């Protein structure tokens, strides 16, 4: 498959590997990102892997755009077939429903399920971490069961508490810090998802797997 | 070593350096000064490293009481600084004595002023930077804007560089913001998600800065920019200065505290130097976009960096003799004069002028 370069200004090169949300494609993005980190190209400041593209930030007075493109193309060409490392599995203890998951009743009604079935469907899969973004430490997890796909809030909440577990489209995610947000909130975890005093500030990294572990306090409303 | 105590915090005063590099993959915003040009110049005035942390004051500055003798420089928006009620100069190294009060008032022109202190503000480095990250509430002073009674520590230095007092930025070195701020942009992210009329609208119409503007970004208002089919994309990285256009067709320029990823189409990215100029834009400011190529952007960036080289060369290796010197850099030539003040050399750069024809002979 061919890659496509796009300029994000004079100091950012975006490498698009495709245009879909797919685990295999996302794995390629991460592999390219890691390969780039290993060769330490002079002038490259950082690389940000997302679903299907890698953004490379660089100093154009140290490395030219065309030279960088060439390096990336050859790195991409020599990527080994991805027998990915055994992914790390992060377990996320989650209290579903009640004040912790105020939208669970809505999700249940919308999907024609009981709240318990919502919990089961949400906590069953081993989710893939596509990327971190939106806010510090926020993991984009997929793929959510089609049966749980619900529209986002038409007016985002001004305050979603830290640790809230939300769903939106075919994705689920966890809010690491209190913030505004438009996803439907179905539970909350006490796991700390962002610690700026640590050099690796997030316990969940792209490529990891995540499983939600329902814990006791749930119960019906 | 605490250098200042906050008497009045001002509208929004945060500690900022040149930003946090290397952590966007964890979703951590880059943060950093909104007008990097001003912070870098303020630091250079004091022989600081350009990336030392300073204080970014917004719209209405803070009032600070000095706890020790310090040498500082204020560059950026004109906040009519006062020391013990008497006006002092901007863009100049000045001394503030222990016990004196520095007051930054309402910005007359521009929006943000930077206070650099010899030695640099010494809040803890977190994830490689001292910048305050407001969205994730860390860095700077407790991850937030200054409050009354906060203290600002500086790195211990042998002695405050009093010899620098009076050093000033050459007049004209900082470009004032015109009535219409033309920012140079590079097309190319989701450019193909827009109709050619949409791109034409973007590059030919005027946009006005709305009051929805903060460290995250500046929302503009003007003729709608037409998409081909929609404004949503699979979320990807959002570079500093990216011009994002949501479904309403209105552009928003993403700045220091922006999210690291986003799901709206981005039509272009503002070149680095002009991102700093946007940091001084106030509501109602008229903005226009001018397309440039990557190679033009790199040439412009080189010229921009040369302006700092001029300052560095003039100030950091003072000539041994008094007199007038001419500095040549690329196609530009600059006049520098050196004189002796209180046993120290004072170097000033005058009237930056370009002399293309006779430069060869100098």
β-strand percent of chain B reads 25-35%
Task: State the end-to-end CA separation of chain B.
Answer: 47 Å
Number of helices, where a helix is a run of at least 4 consecutive DSSP H or I residues of chain B:
4
Q: Helix-strand pattern of chain B, N to C?
A: EEHEEEEEEEEEEHEEEEEEHEHEEE
Percent helix among the residues of chain A?
10-25%
Q: What's the total number of strands of chain B?
A: 22
Structural class of chain B: mainly beta
CATH class of the largest domain in chain A: Mainly Beta
Number of strands of chain A: 13
- Overall mean pLDDT score of chain A? 93
Task: Flag low-confidence runs of chain B.
Answer: 353-362
Major pleated sheet of chain A: 7 strands, mixed, barrel
**What is the total number of structural domains of chain B?**
3
Structural class of chain A: alpha+beta
CATH architecture of the largest domain in chain A: Beta Barrel
Cα-to-Cα separation, first versus last residue of chain A: 51 Å
Compact summary:
By secondary structure, chain A is an alpha+beta fold. Chain A has helices spanning 23-39, 65-77, 104-111, 115-123; strands at residues 4-7, 12-16, 44-49, 53-58, 89-96, 127-132, 139-142, 157-160, 164-168, 171-174, 179-181, 184-189, 209-214.
SSE arrangement:
The complex is a heterodimer of chains A (221) and B (362).
Chain A lengths: L3 E4 L4 E5 L6 H17 L4 E6 L3 E6 L6 H13 L11 E8 L7 H8 L3 H9 L3 E6 L6 E4 L14 E4 L3 E5 L2 E4 L4 E3 L2 E6 L19 E6 L7
Chain B lengths: L1 E7 L5 E3 L19 H10 L8 E5 L4 E4 L3 E7 L5 E2 L2 E2 L5 E4 L4 E3 L8 E6 L33 E3 L26 E8 L8 H9 L2 E7 L3 E5 L10 E6 L4 E4 L5 E4 L6 E10 L1 H7 L7 E6 L2 H23 L6 E7 L2 E10 L2 E10 L9
Parallel strand pairs in B: 12-19
Antiparallel strand pairs in B: 1-4, 1-11, 2-3, 3-10, 4-9, 5-8, 5-10, 6-7, 6-9, 12-18, 13-14, 13-19, 14-17, 15-18, 16-17, 16-18, 20-21, 21-22
Helix pairs in contact in B: 1-4
Structure description:
The complex is a heterodimer of chains A (221) and B (362). In chain A, 21% of the residues lie in helices and 30% in strands. With 221 residues, chain A is of the alpha+beta class. The longest helix of chain A is centred in the N-terminal third of the chain and has 17 residues, at 23-39. Chain B folds into three domains: 2-164, no CATH class; 180-295, Cyclophilin-like (Cyclophilin); 303-361, no CATH class. Chain B has 362 residues and is mainly β. The radius of gyration of chain B is 21 Å and the shape is globular. A seven-stranded mixed β-barrel of chain B has the order 12-18-16-17-14-13-19. The N and C termini of chain B lie far apart (47 Å).
